[in-house]
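To close the chapter, one final illustration. This time we ask the reader to focus less on the individual chains and more on the assembly as a whole: which components sit near each other, and how the overall shape emerges from the parts.
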Amino acid sequence: MADNEASQPNLWSSRLMFILAAAGSAVGLGNIWKFPYIAGENGGGAFVVVYLLCIAAIGVPIMAAEVLLGRAGRQSPINTLRALVRRSGASKGWTLIGWMGVLGGFLILSFYAVIAGWALHYIFQAGSGTFTGASSAEVSGVFDDFLASPWTMLFWHTVFMAGTVAIVARGVNRGLEFAIRWFMPVLFVLILLLVGYAMVVGDFAAGFGFLFGFDFGALTVAGVQEAMGHAFFTLSVGMGAIMAYGAYVPGNVSIPGTVLTIASVDTVVALAAGLAIFPIVFANPDLEAGAGPGLLFVTLPIAFGNLPLGAFIGTLFFILISFAAITSAISIIEPALAWTVEQFRITRARVAIALGGICWFLGIGSVLSFNVWSNVHIVGERTFFDFVDYVTQVWMLPIGGFLIVLFAAWVLPKEIVTEQLGFSSGFKWKLWLVLGRVVAPIGVLLVFVYTTFLA
Ligand code: PFF
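The assembled structure is written out below.
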């Protein structure tokens, strides 16, 4: 076969393994922590509709483009783009996509590790019975105290970064595959259990209505912007993470079917997390949907505090969130890591430590944003944490995704695309052309230009 599979020593062991790894990348804090809180801040329903539309019309084609490019190039995103630019006779400028992804990865992982550190801390909070029988005010107090302690937060941030580095250092197949295969399904079952709890104890009708009642009056321009940015973030697209994983996909795996599966799993987990959280919010007068980044860390502990076996379930839940976060974190760093290893022939372990160190250092800014630097603002009202989150989600990922899909659908020679997608005519081909050439890039452009410049 024309595929250069032999040039890539690190292949996923099966189609299922790739699905699990990519779903492991996609499903993370974005689904369980971020989606509920930004849906809450943006009034629910209408925001969710825009988010779902962006996933389907923009995120899925871009994810297909990333896997396609990754597998066609079989190297780190930077070198994959370099190779494909050469094969297409295109401008070298396209390799900038790879560099932007590397930079985006540093920024995203820096704050991602801080929030994952919160989840780690909460494993012990839940496990030691802090929430057992606690009122919603007490649970909120525990969270506020934690935010006010930079050293505790820095400690857990450090633990999480160290864990990520340790896994990444061991390579793609070992460790990672095992973790994903077991933890993802258990996490999913636990979320369903919490949805069940919310149905019985929370105000489920209000929570459901909030998420799926389409109140377009509540939608703001900033909300549309955030919905699109989050569609990129939650699917891990726009910065080359999925492209890096695509380089390890065996030649016989079908890209469109696989990508649809991954996006569906990701979406279902996010919606389920929303259905677990909002009924609890609406059943507790002390809580509000727009509470911001702390939403998960106050709502679910209230549920755990009142559930039979709550300390146990709570502990397990935060363990699983931490695993979901780590399976995402390793993919965030993979583009930079793979490139450095290829380029300088240094061992993965050394590179992992160096890159992890950079992210750790940047993350200190996010740690301080919640306490010592909470009054330091960069661009408008944003703390350092808000700023890094905003720049990556609203600017870097959409611009990266836009360029990726343009390159795959317009610039790459047809025979390369056909070889990867497995079809070159008929309905599927036309659908790819329409989505990849028109719908996805124009969709990003419209939302981006409208929300950034015109509104
Ligand atoms: N998709 C991850 C989440 O939802 O938690 C976050 C993420 C992973 C973003 C990988 C970007 C990325 F490249």
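The radius of gyration is 21 Å. Residues 164 and 362 are 15 Å apart (CA to CA). With these observations in hand, you are ready for the problems at the end of the chapter.
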